[in-house]
Amino acid sequence: MPVIPVNTPSAKYDVTIASGLLRTLHPRLAKLNPGKPFRPFIVTSPNIWALWSKHFLASFKEPPTVLFHPAGERHKRMSSVEALAQQLATAGADRDSLLLAFGGGVIGDITGFLAAIYMRGIRYVQIPTTLLAQVDSSIGGKTGVNLTAGKNLIGSFYHPQAVLADTDLLRTLPPAELRAGLQESIKAGIIYDAKLFRFMEQNAAAILNTKKNADTKALTKVVAASVRVKADVVSKDEKESGLRMILNFGHTIGHAIEAATNYQQLLHGEAVAWGSIAALNVAIARKTIKPKEAERITKLILRYGPLPTFKATAEKLVALTSRDKKNRSGIRAFILPTAIGKVEIVRNVTEPELLAATNHMLTLMRQKR
Amino acid sequence: MPVIPVNTPSAKYDVTIASGLLRTLHPRLAKLNPGKPFRPFIVTSPNIWALWSKHFLASFKEPPTVLFHPAGERHKRMSSVEALAQQLATAGADRDSLLLAFGGGVIGDITGFLAAIYMRGIRYVQIPTTLLAQVDSSIGGKTGVNLTAGKNLIGSFYHPQAVLADTDLLRTLPPAELRAGLQESIKAGIIYDAKLFRFMEQNAAAILNTKKNADTKALTKVVAASVRVKADVVSKDEKESGLRMILNFGHTIGHAIEAATNYQQLLHGEAVAWGSIAALNVAIARKTIKPKEAERITKLILRYGPLPTFKATAEKLVALTSRDKKNRSGIRAFILPTAIGKVEIVRNVTEPELLAATNHMLTLMRQKR
User: What residues does the 3-dehydroquinate synthase N-terminal domain cover (chains A, B) (predicted)?
Assistant: First the structure.
């Protein structure tokens, strides 16, 4: 059972990846809080709860209070956090309460943020149900919500007590969500782990097999390797003052695509996949990466598709990047791949360069349509 | 010029108390951020800005962006924070932005919280304009907003880079606000500083003199002593796990009074003053304080009145205390004075005791009407 430590200046906790974790939840929570009383509150989406509540509650003597929050990026708003906080208060939640984020990235981000600000901070545990949440968003303490002006503009760095990733949950995931999550694993490979990249090249069929009784060994290996990349990077640079920025590879244009399509047309991983191709195009134009390696990257991203198409001009997408949090007083930090498993952070990417790279990505998309 | 350090595990900063600070603001901000670029954004209320913008802007070469937020407890809500964040984003605020909280307690609390969560945390400076904000709410890093379910249920511990308290600002304060702020100074005396208490007994006339050209020496002395109490307590116990709780003296019933009157009838300091009398009544009934000392406390609180009356039954007020943040899994922590300058934290105050004490307070209020 892979147990991967996250170790930052402000928090120390483990990510546990295994089948069957859900059924042993309560003793695990008790072990995380020895001698400290806790009253659990579950934040989840109606869909997830319908599928998995029986497993979730199996180890609880008294059923905890369940708060429902709809899935979907458009519900990641301040008003939702306020509504959940109001429900917590009405149910008598105090500083001894423990929130359990049981869902995908949106549930995790919003529950983490709720835990960060309810009574100025209470404990929480991440129990991610999607691949994307298991390999990426549940780890590292970034929590928050969107503004009309942009994604994740409001939030906190606030770490969970633990991340419990039950790989059984991936069995009920829609295939498109599985593939979108795997795009973040590809990203982990591109920026940090050439071995993971190669494994995903060589085992695509096994990893993508979503038949009911398919062997999930290859998939679990990908999850663990991806978590290791994220945990390692976050442990070295918690607050994103340097290294952690590399995790944003593909996210500049990726976020712009999500904004341009109102967060409703593409899954996050799909938008990041297109964004990665755009970022790669900048590297290709600058000749900072060998053409053969660039080709392998594009090929792997498309292999884990199909990626949905969308309608937006390069001009609009580039305009939408200007409010990206990676800007510091107008200087745009950009993550460029230099080889498979290696990237550099550059600050001199110009608007014409970004426009050209985005246009190339859109051309590729139109060819695939 | 009194400069009082706050020194907690998570932050180190100074509270500076002096006349004329406003006019030298920009060089002071530059000194706080050597070599770090900052783009200032002011959050203030229209009233304060109309009175003091000229002084405020005197040291700025380029006028900073000003965001307005109405004064008053009922505007301390998530929706206001979201609206301010949206304005920041639209104005292009990024991680190099510096928020300046220029106003009373509500402006300070909301701006601090906005700074805590905008892009997961940016810098801010407190420039409190009311006595209450100067002696209490601007210090210690408690930021937040209210829910319908209760006051300050949402928030963060997030410290400013500095607190700059210009005593000139107190000259334009409505007399009732000055008196309400002085109630927090009386509280500081009761819980921690018998010397301050005595000074306020002996110099009431000079402290309360609000004539235009009145000597503010006595008032400045009270401000500095009150800040020292707050800074000392907060430095010893940042997160309110023990000692810091004593600052909540009078706040259990005080918060209930504010809630019962919809946060519109009484100033915070006035509600706390009545709450202090109620808390004192518990101590009198338990005989944990000498009758003569209890009498001196009541007398001083009323000397800095008149305190406005309000309509609420003891039953209603006690019922409203049950959601107080000081509850830990149902155990009510209560601050009881044992002598002037000394309190103890007790956890066994019963509901009948609290009811009787609150009824005594209400009887006193009716006698004064």
Answer: 70-179
